[in-house]
Specification:
alpha+beta, 4-stranded antiparallel sheet, 8-stranded mixed sheet, Dna Ligase, domain 1, 302 residues, D-amino Acid Aminotransferase, Chain A, domain 1, 3 domains
Length: 302
């Protein structure tokens, strides 16, 4: 296959600093980047004496297993009793309990979930963009439903130090959250792959897949930064995110939501190829129909 394909994934001695959160936060501390307080319990006794602020979340330090825990995103505990209960459940689910990480949770609020995305060569940033993940589904730990390019220079220095330190080559998205308790942007994840909203970057002037191809071919890439103010919507996910926000009783403006959809570039809706849009509409309608049928069927049995 080497005649037709070129592997662009970095070697493991570089990749491990992004894939394994134990190493990610170790390096973050070394370069002076802020990150949420994290704990790596060896057993239940460690959890019983853990000194941290609630709420906390449990999640895997990496997603390399095939069990239910390794494939999950995050489990939230509001107090010590719930933390111990969830830890016990995680130990039953996880093939290797040593992958369990406990972390202080940062409240997800409007304007707090942001990213720095970049293309690098040997640790030098060639192209980058700042973005805010405005709406997610589910709202707490979900996938991006509406993303907008922004200016957020506070993220640049820690991100570049991290990438320079590991001499990273490739595309990367570094997720941060603003902790309103101390006003600090804290590093959460380093994603060394194409992210869900990468198409938005193209609309904002940074075509990461094409630029990555140029790097792989040893072609010159002129430095470029994405322009702010470009919106991107994963339309049906976005509508679901809005409904979930209303259902949870959180502040929601219908006018602002509709306005953002009208201004946005949509994941599936491009005028020169409408087939994906019709397929998504069909899939969404079928999913709604199945759920309604299940609800009606459950009521009829009662």
């Amino acid at each position: 296959m080497s005649e037709y394909y070129q592997l662009t994934t970095p070697k493991w001695d570089i990749l491990q600093w992004a894939v394994d959160k134990y190493y990610t936060y170790q390096l973050a501390a070394e370069i002076g980047a802020d990150y949420p307080k994290a704990f790596y319990p060896k057993n239940r006794s460690d959890v019983e004496i853990l000194d941290g602020k609630f709420p906390m979340i449990l999640k895997p330090v990496h997603h390399q297993g095939s069990d239910a825990f390794s494939n999950g995103r995050a489990w939230q505990a509001k107090d010590r009793a719930e933390l111990l209960s969830l830890y016990d459940e995680m130990c039953r689910l996880a093939a290797d309990p040593s992958v369990i990480m406990i972390q202080e949770m940062i409240a997800a609020e409007p304007g707090t979930q942001v990213s720095y995305a970049a293309l690098c060569k040997d640790g030098t940033v060639l192209a980058d963009i700042f973005a805010e993940r405005v709406r997610l589904t589910p709202p707490e730990f979900g996938v991006s439903a509406y993303v907008q390019s922004i200016e957020r220079p506070e993220l640049e220095a820690p991100s570049r130090r991290f990438l320079e330190k590991i001499k990273y080559t490739g595309i990367v998205e570094i997720e941060f959250m603003l902790d309103r308790r101390d006003g600090l942007y804290k590093m959460l994840d380093v994603n060394t792959r194409a992210w869900g909203w990468i198409a938005m970057c193209g609309y904002a002037g940074v075509d990461f897949p094409y630029l990555m191809w140029k790097v792989s071919q040893d072609e010159e890439v002129s430095p470029v930064r994405g322009r702010p103010g470009v919106g991107w919507s994963r339309t049906f996910f976005d509508i679901g995110a809005a409904l979930q926000t209303v259902w949870m009783g959180r502040p929601f403006s219908t006018g602002k939501f509709i306005s953002s959809l009208l201004r946005a570039n949509h994941e599936m809706y491009v005028w020169d190829d409408l087939k994906p849009a019709f397929m998504e509409l069909f899939t969404f309608s079928a999913r709604v129909f199945r759920k309604l049928r299940k609800i009606i069927s459950g009521k009829s049995k009662k």
